Amino acid sequence: xxxxxxxxxxxxxxxxxxxxxxxxxxxxxxxxxxxxxxxxxxxxxxxxxxxxxxxxxxxxxxxxxxxxxxxxxxxxxxxxxxxxxxxxxxxxxxxxxxxxxxxxxxxxxxxxxxxxxxxxxxxxxxxxxxxxxxxxxxxxxxxxxxxxxxxxxxxxxxxxxxxxxxxxxxxxxxxxxxxxxxxxxxxxxxxxxxxxxxxxxxxxxxxxxxxxxxxxxxxxxxxxxxxxxxxxxxxxxxxxxxxxxxxxxxxxxxxxxxxxxxxxxxxxxxxxxxxxxxxxxxxxxxxxxxxxxxxxxxx
Length: 299
Prior knowledge:
Elements: H1 13-41, H2 45-51, H3 64-71, H4 74-105, H5 112-121, H6 129-138, H7 156-167, H8 171-179, H9 184-192, H10 197-213, H11 216-221, H12 230-240, H13 248-254, H14 262-285, H15 288-298
């Protein structure tokens, strides 16, 4: 009689029940804070006052916090800045990462080992904040949107994952295309990339989320507050109480408009910062196992 490994045995009723309870608790622990943030952002001043802070039970709902938030133009401009940086940065980072990973995945390519060693060296040593700032300043990128993109344009981790995936593509497929007269760029565009949609989508998501959530580069390199991304606006308002709507509150008060509480506005900013990632992730999630795990394990 052969014995099967434990993970191949049929789960017991107790095991299934325990897994269901644990997974339910994990889901609640993740969803409940988001629910509270969204509900508080939609609550009126009376509901927030009665709750004594964060609102957990639905009461009076209103979009006044979002009206106040976008009324002054600061958040609207910051959203446009973050969107532009994310779109341009993700496209540039994907292009550079794909080209570098494909070149380093081909045996016999020029300076293959030295270049790969330099990329791997960045896992152990980073340039540091002061040298990075000096380089950006010498390049004339202070107060430039490019200072939010170029310093983090290529991630060594993403490059290694994509290179490992490219190395798993059968060499016979590439050799047959080369025999037919296809150039390296044509092989990359017509054969390699269509076979790598999963890993490309996942790496693209990594880059996009990184650019969208980044604020430290803006703290270092952007002095003009009209060029601040959304995450820096979020930090300045939530932590330091910056006024996002100059003169708007005085106008609304004079007009008899009921102002939303500051807590609701803070929660509304958090919702605006979270929504894009929450909308994009479900479309890319199905590629995670196929795109990253295969490339990382087999490489």
